[in-house]
Amino acid sequence: MTATYQVHGDIAVITLENPPVNGLGHATRSAIVDGVQRALEDAAIRAIVLTGAGKGFSGGADIREFNTPKALQEPSLHTVIRVVESAGKPVVAAIHGLAMGGGLELALGCHYRVAVAGAQIALPEVKLGILPGAGGTQRLPRVLGLERALNMIVSGSPVLSEKLAGTRLFDQMIDGDLLQGALGFARGIADQRPLPKVRDLRVSLPNADGYLQFARNTVRAVAAQFPAPLKCVDAVAAAVSKPFDEGLHFERQLFLELVQTSESKALRHAFFAERAASKIPDVPGDTVLRPIRSAAVIGAGTMGGGIAMNFANAGIPVTMLETKQEALDKGLATIRKNYENSMKKGKLTQAQLDQRMGLIGSTLSYESIGSADIVIEAVFEDMAVKEAVFRKLDEVMKPGAILASNTSTLDVDKIAQFTRRPQDVIGTHFFSPANVMKLLEIVRGRQTANDVLATVMDLAKKIRKTGVVSGVCDGFIGNRMVEQYIRQAGFLLEEGCLPAQVDRAIEKFGFAMGPFRMSDLAGNDIGWYIRKRRYVEKPEVTYSRIADKLCEQGRFGQKTSAGWYDYKPGDRKARPSEAVNQMIIAHSAEIGVQRRQVSDEEIVERLVYALVNEGALIVEEGIALRASDIDMVYLTGYGFPLFRGGPMFYADTVGLPNVLMAIRRFAKGHHPEAWRPAPLLEKLATEGKTFN
Length: 692
Ligand code: 3HC
Ligand code: NAI
Prior knowledge:
By secondary structure, the chain is an alpha/beta fold. It folds into 3 domains: 3-259, 2-enoyl-CoA Hydratase, Chain A, domain 1 (Alpha-Beta Complex), CATH 3.90.226; 295-470, 3-Layer(aba) Sandwich (Rossmann fold), CATH 3.40.50; 478-687, N-(1-d-carboxylethyl)-l-norvaline Dehydrogenase, domain 2. The chain contains 27 helices and 19 strands. α1 (26-41) links the parallel β2 (11-16) and β3. The protein starts with a strand and ends in a 5-residue tail after the last helix. 1,4-dihydronicotinamide adenine dinucleotide (NAI) binds at residues 298-304, 321-323, 327, 378-381, 385, 388-389, 406-408, 429-432.
């Protein structure tokens, strides 16, 4: 049963019941049509109320049906809306919680709408790269006016129902019980004829053409690679210029076009990937969580400060611990400055700043953090320092406290062994700046308890991060892959590229920042430090030595005003450096490589397929639970272009046999050892399958 039918005197009530959000799947659509027909056939019924059980009215098309035959099976949403709109008895939509996408479109097909305050009203389809496909672009402007409707459709953002009170969207706002209010309303209008239909209204705005032109220009500037926002404007324009049915037809055409675009496929993939990432196959969804009411952070440096802000932003009191008062003072001052900057941008009020600073305590003594529910260590990246900290935490923390490490390269299993409670130890790998970046890699140690993992996944949501589980390995998911990407970038320099060409090519592909600009921002010395360790621990792994030469000259990046590029003090603009370029060319000669012209296409393929090949190994080894988790890591932590859906999804769209062919071609080049096709990639390519 996905919609129930009840009779309240002379009013029929159809209640959508398809948890979690009453998605309009096939069974629900059928049940609505059946309910309306039943009410029409019953002479005792004068009006129909359509409402939703649970969380809200409806979250729209059932996304679980996307890409299945059921999505298209009759009655389609169009048919449902036609049945409702053409019913000979009034249909009243009674809205609470949320009316989104197809849910709002269904409500717009009803003759009347009533709502309680606090409901989220939206046409969010644009966020999935499509547009409202069941009349939303034609009906919403008719009830809200062109400007307001266009804003909602192009942004996809929800608006609270009370903000729309007084518009033609709602015939009445209900105080108190929604069903009672809706029944009262329905009785009041039951005999009124003709039945009002949104389709009969006209969209009016003086100089609509001028406004639409302005809207197109504005939207074009922000939509970047995404076609949907502009198509939304086109569809809304049709609501002004075309008769209703023609407008509806036009909307349908655009919808069908957009559904096929690679950008929409990428956005839908990202939507599902985000939700999939929170599911851990061997950890049941109903695992009892450990309560997180307070936190502690060890180390108030770059990462520790940002991590503490996350807790304060979520209203969780947090204490930072350091070895010296000056370090604490510095950490607190940086946090305050960050909040003040947000305040200057109008994102935070003084009261919020005070409240958040009030939640951040500081201490030099371990004894005062013993009662925290979770402690996150963010001290220097040095096993000996981590060991001392974890031994101390094991002594002072209350039983059941979660002990987390923000290490970016060290072995979490080894860290866990410094305690007598390895089941409570987990990795929480934040990205810099930790208060801004969405990604949180959650590193599951060999002995990490299920409830610890589930609690940290839930915490990620509370602090508004995208949590992705990673197994223990060098670099976890993200940095292990980026290492291959950076290696290729180095080899490209040896073979004939200069930093600016590599950066330009990959930025044109859509990356926020190329590898050399990124390295200059992060500090070239960090990679140098890691490489020096690798030269000893893993001498078989090859690297271009150009980056070492750069560091030997003290060119650490922006912080020294010199890196792969030149910088003027206080200016982040990267200027190609003649000295560096000459050094690169000289290096090629030194190692006997004949420099050649490398195409932008080759640059992109080598950088991206290096990610893909390592990603395939990571899936195969079970370090990532699924390929789409890797996509989430890259979309939320590494600036991979959203419209391409992440490296693994992108590889799927290119075709795995093509990716494999390119990798085999690269394996005949300058550094064959860096191109061993991952067995999983070979297997899927041969079987004609995909990662996702
Ligand atoms: N259909 C089915 N299930 C849905 C759904 C939908 N439309 N929207 C969300 N869900 C599911 C989620 O998958 C999740 O399931 P899970 O617990 O099994 O993982 C559960 O509902 C809760 O979702 P969230 O974790 O996202 O919960 P929130 O409370 O944070 O958000 C929401 C709720 C605002 C409804 C958010 O889920 C959302 O934005 N959903 C998408 C809404 C949307 O885009 N609707 C338009 C669909 S396209 C359409 O209608 C086409 C039409 O124009 C023809
Ligand atoms: P940082 O050098 O900015 O801060 C470290 C802080 O720890 C310093 O303030 C120091 O005084 C303090 N500290 C050192 N030993 C301590 C001890 N025994 N007890 C208490 N405090 C101590 O370093 P950063 O960049 O914040 O890195 C911290 C951790 O986060 C490292 O493990 C690093 O690998 C990891 N990380 C760093 C990222 C980055 O981009 N900086 C990204 C992701 C993880």
